[in-house]
Amino acid sequence: MGYIKSLNKWANAHTYYPLDLLRIALGIFLFYKGVFFMSNIRLLINLYDPIRSVIGDVLLVHYIAPAHFVGGFLIVFGLLTRWAILAQLPILIGAVLINFIGEMIPANLFLSSFVLIVCIFFLFYGSGKHSVDKYLKMQQ
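The chain above was modelled as a monomer; its predicted structure follows.
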């Protein structure tokens, strides 16, 4: 019985690690996408071709790539996580909608939907126990 209690205490103390790893993985993915879009601007413009007339090329180039780049970096470290995710939400909603407006690519729809759901989760959950936000809050 004591062994089960010790396992339960360990599990309660370490339940944050999977969520922190998910947050870090999300940040790395968004950072990678930001770097990828910065180096392949023509591909980014072609992806958003179905809604180009609505938002224009300048917004694509100057908002999407840097938002992913900077937002991913902030999410990895857990610094201003909710603000970084708020900057990602319009991009991710647009990525999901593009699959319905333009050519339907199931893999892109699944990936963008999954990232959108994870971002919405972290918007409410926050940056987690092992983050710069938590560290700075504890220093006050």
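The chain has seven helices and no strands.
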